[in-house]
Amino acid sequence: MKGKKKVSEKERLAYEAYVDGFQRLEINKDAKIKCWEFMKCNPNVYVHCPAFLKSAGRRCWLVAGSVESSMFRCKVSGQDRNCKECEFYKKVKRGEL
User: Fold this and answer.
1) Are 32 and 97 within 8 A, CB to CB?
2) What is the rounded CA–CA span in Å between residue 25 and residue 43?
3) Number of neighbouring beta carbons within 10 Å of residue 45
4) What does the pLDDT average to over 25-49?
5) DSSP state letters, 45-64
């Protein structure tokens, strides 16, 4: 499978922990601001964003980039070294949004 990075066990477990954590929080995805709204992304950009396409606006770091990697697919988060440096990520994790 050319072009696909093999995911390590550590990365897989980290991903599953994030998914599990958000499922336990029971976040109402419709009522809270989504990353593309917070970042004021142009509709021409966010309609192609993996977070938008996978309805992951409150957990964009799970699909738009990587919390521990420099492999980004999100144009906004790509400006940072990793998603943990993104202001949206920080505010959601602190419960401010």
Assistant:
1) yes
2) 28
3) 14
4) 77
5) HHTT-HHHHTT-TTSGGGTS
**Do residues 82 and 69 lie in contact, with contact meaning Cβ atoms separated by under 8 Å?**
yes
Domain ranges of the chain: 29-93
Q: What digits encode the pLDDT tens for the residues 13-27?
A: 888 887 777 776 655
Centroid of chain to Cα 53: 12
Number of other CB atoms surrounding residue 95 within 10 Å: 7
Q: What is the mean pLDDT of residues 68-88?
A: 63
Average pLDDT of the segment spanning 22-38: 72
Residue 44 sits at the vertex; the CA angle it makes with 51 and 71, to the nearest 5 degrees, is 40
Query: Tell me, what's the pLDDT at 1?
Result: 47
In order of 12, 26, 29, 79, 82, the CA distances from 32 in angstroms are 27, 12, 6, 24, 23
Section 67-95 average pLDDT: 69
